[in-house]
Design a protein that fits this description.
Layout lengths: L8 E5 L4 H12 L3 E6 L9 E4 L5 H14 L5 E4 L15 H27 L6 E6 L12 H20 L5 E8 L12 H9 L9 H12 L10 E4 L6
Parallel strand pairs: 1-2, 1-4, 2-3, 4-5, 5-6, 6-7
Bound molecules: nicotinamide-adenine-dinucleotide.
GO molecular function: oxidoreductase activity
Keywords: NADP, Oxidoreductase
Family: Belongs to the short-chain dehydrogenases/reductases (SDR) family.
Length: 240
């Protein structure tokens, strides 16, 4: 991947999370200048780690000011930060979960997208790539995960809208939809239910965060110049 993103300023959200850290590693390896945003500060040599609340208008305005002053632009935004929500049936979902998950998973990416578009449209000469981390749950229902699933369906709506509206402004917008991942601390799963889940994946294992990062690096790069409005499943054949 070395050199693919040389000279590109890339803003990655949820950077301190399980997939976020792999995204940061992948983008750094590809030569990008990485601004790593999260609620908690990521400790990672060679990246610009910033703390922000992606659901908060003021926090994103501050981030935009900071980026404008220091870099002047963003070449790639990876909307990766998200909340998972609890596992329970629709009729039992606390409304608070809806408020919290939609705030982070939908309002957050919308605010960040608006922010990088503002920076970009001031001088739309360089390509801008926006990558939204969706989920297999944005394509179909996952048991007991209705609110999370709703949020990822909405994120795919944003992806397609941005792709269509800004295609003539040097902007590409795509989504990545991971399936079952091999990551620690899977909320609501014990060891038995987790191994049952893994056994449903045709390749026989969950995806690795770095495999997601490799796809994101490609979508961020100019090699993907004709790709916009697409949603890439990365699920080991689960949807086949
Ligand atoms: N892990 C999986 O199995 C899986 C599967 C499909 C899709 N995804 C998607 O991949 C992405 C990353 O998943 P992950 O497993 O690394 O999640 P994670 O929970 O490990 O990381 C999410 C990060 O988002 C940050 N975050 C939460 N609220 C925030 C806020 N208000 N402002 C700023 N940052 C905030 C958290 O601090 C955390 O570091 C998410 O969009 C998730 O929906 C994950």
């Amino acid at each position: 991947m070395a050199g693919r993103l040389e000279g590109k300023i890339c803003l990655i959200t949820g950077a301190a999370g399980r997939i976020g850290r792999a995204l940061v590693d992948g983008f750094v390896e590809a030569g990008a200048t990485v601004i790593a945003a999260d609620l908690v500060k990521l400790e990672h040599e060679g990246v610009d780690a910033v703390v922000c609340d992606q659901g908060d208008v003021e926090s994103i305005a501050k981030l935009e000011e900071y980026i404008k002053a220091k870099y002047g632009r963003v070449d790639c935004l990876v909307n990766n930060g998200a909340l998972g929500g609890n596992r329970c049936n629709v009729h039992e979902k606390p409304l608070q979960e809806y408020e919290d998950v939609m705030r982070v998973n939908v309002r957050g990416p919308l605010l960040l997208t608006q922010s990088v578009l503002r920076l970009h449209l001031a001088e739309p000469t360089r390509p801008l790539s926006i990558i939204n981390m969706a989920s297999i749950a944005g394509r179909r229902a996952v048991s007991l995960g209705s609110v999370y699933s709703m949020s990822k369906h909405a994120l795919l709506g944003l992806t397609k809208s941005v792709a269509r509206e800004y295609a003539d402004k040097n902007v590409r917008c795509n989504a990545i939809s991971p399936g079952v991942m091999e990551v620690p601390n899977m909320q609501g799963f014990d060891e038995e239910s987790l191994s049952k889940l893994m056994s449903t994946v045709p390749v026989g294992r969950g995806g690795k965060p770095l495999e997601v990062a490799h796809l994101a690096v490609f979508l961020a790069s100019d090699e993907a110049s004709f790709i916009t409005g697409s949603d890439y499943l990365i699920d080991g054949g689960s949807s086949a």
